[in-house]
Design a protein that fits this description.
The chain has 464 residues and is α/β, with parallel strands linked by helices. The protein folds into 2 domains: 152 residues, 3-Layer(aba) Sandwich (Rossmann fold); 242 residues, no CATH class. Helices cover 38% and strands 16% of the residues. The chain has 17 helices and 14 strands. The strands form 3 sheets. Strands 7-9-10-11-12-14-13 form a 7-stranded mixed sheet, with helices on both faces. Helix 8 crosses helix 13. About 4% of the residues have low confidence.
Length: 464
């Protein structure tokens, strides 16, 4: 499998859990990480046999002995790695992992999960390293990943970023050019074509790998269908019963055309359901990492304070899935400017996907709306940078026509803004309609995941 950028952050000494939707490559990534250990044990908690190892009431040491016995592997203290694959589907494994981590950090665990520092019960500071993956987020797992307790550190794995997509395409020259700041002029057209391909098929590893092997779209249809079926199989773990599961499935199948748009929960997708029921269905889809509901901010200064009383915007997991299940692959394939397709909806979706993949932890991008009655002014994204909240618009056209951006700049304490489009990089000084001078950094939208790197040079250039 292909290397992932996240692999550089994984710790050999700190317990962690890789979170992400089915099919983004969690098991492959953690299996590659396990090769750093001479002794490691893999437990697949989607199987009855491996879930049965974690019995209610068993001490931590008893569970360790069960793992060693049933897997036929000796446990050699911290020289051993135990991988709990799909830990979210086994509450007893979550409790055991919490006890192990507490023991290694000197914390106190309850008697049922261990945490006593003796050879009988395990959980001691020289015990095995325990890491995990999960494609669902449950209440029990939230406790394990609580930032204050830091029992297990969460890492969020997304579909391939554009940079990782270029790795899969096996084009070292394009990769080298993409990583240059600024990108050399001669690489622009080729990188833009690659980005259109990336936006067309998406970043799901299975899809990208199949395309890289055959270099054509035929044959991908079945894989898209298999991916969606795996998501359906996760829903029973995050819904309260059959009716809730069926509604979540129905909402999912109606969601793709609304990617990167603001929605109302009430009767979403013309479903005869109220806000409360639809909201629960969306939260279930969030708990299997298929989407994020992004809420707007109304202030141009930090800290970001999303207003959950306003309509959210949907950010779906992967643009390729959006294109396939919305039936819009063909018009996107024929277009040179994604801003011209469906009023820029696909451009916002893929840019949001790129920004999300490069933001730390679970924090996602926000967007800005003007806090004024009957105002439709909005900015596609706002990104924290050097104590400022930088506006980012995904737009074609001249800078003087960016009316919503102008309203943001007029209220902002700084003069910096970013525009992503199908054009070439550039910096210009311009003015808002009300006459405030500001500086606009225009970048081709294939650099959406590199905005921060380019902002540093942008600011230095402007400030001399």
């Amino acid at each position: 499998m292909y290397g992932r950028l996240l692999s550089n952050n994984l710790s050999r000494v700190r317990p962690f859990c890789i979170l992400g939707a089915k099919g983004v490559g969690k098991t492959t990534l953690i299996s590659d990480f396990a090769l750093k250990f001479s002794n490691w044990i893999h437990l697949d908690l989607e199987t009855d046999a491996d879930r049965a190892i974690f019995q209610p009431g068993a001490t931590s040491g008893e569970t360790l002995r069960a793992i060693s016995f049933l897997k036929g592997r000796e446990i050699r203290g911290k020289g051993t790695l135990i991988v709990l694959d799909e830990i979210g589907k086994c509450p007893e494994a979550i409790r055991w992992a919490g006890g192990q981590a507490d023991g290694r950090t000197g914390g106190q665990a309850d008697g049922r999960t261990g945490g006593q520092a003796d050879g009988r019960t395990g959980g001691q500071a020289d015990g095995p390293v325990v890491v995990a993956t999960s494609s669902i987020m449950t209440k029990e797992l939230l406790v394990l990943l609580n930032n204050e307790k830091e029992v297990m550190h969460p890492y969020y794995l997304h579909p391939f970023s554009f940079e990782e997509f270029l790795m899969v395409m096996d084009d070292p020259a394009s990769m080298e050019s993409f990583r240059e700041v600024p990108v050399p002029y001669y690489a622009y057209d080729k990188l833009l074509n690659y980005f259109h391909l990336y936006a067309l098929i998406g970043g799901m590893p299975e899809i990208t790998g199949a395309y890289a092997k055959n270099r054509h779209l035929s044959g991908l249809k079945n894989i898209y269908g298999q991916i969606e079926e795996r998501y359906m199989q996760c829903l029973p773990f995050v819904t309260a019963g059959t009716k809730s599961r069926d509604l979540a499935m129905e909402v999912l199948q109606n969601t793709y055309p609304y990617a990167a748009t603001r929605i109302s929960f009430n009767r979403f997708g013309n479903l005869e359901k109220g806000s409360r029921e639809i909201s629960r269905a969306f939260k279930a889809l969030e708990r299997i990492f298929l989407l994020q509901m992004i809420y707007p901010v109304t202030s141009p200064i930090l800290p970001m304070a999303p207003d959950t009383s306003k309509f959210p915007r949907l950010q779906l997991l992967d643009t390729g899935l959006v294109n396939y299940f919305s039936g819009i692959q063909k018009p996107l394939f024929q277009s040179h400017d994604m801003n011209a397709i469906f009023e820029g909806q696909i451009a916002r979706q893929v840019v949001g996907q790129e920004i999300l993949a490069t933001m730390p932890e679970a924090s996602g991008p926000c967007f800005w709306v003007r806090d004024k009655a009957q105002s439709s002014a909005s900015v596609d994204f706002v990104i924290p940078f050097d104590g400022m909240l930088i506006p980012v618009v995904v737009r074609s056209g001249e800078a003087g026509r960016l009316r919503s951006l102008h309203q943001y700049v007029d209220e902002s304490p700084h003069p910096f803004a970013v525009r992503l489009y199908a054009g070439k990089p550039g910096i210009q000084q311009t003015s808002t309609i009300r006459g405030k001078k500001y500086y606009l950094l225009s970048l081709p939208y294939f650099l959406a995941g590199k905005i921060r790197e380019h902002l540093g040079g942008f600011r230095k250039f402007v400030e001399g």
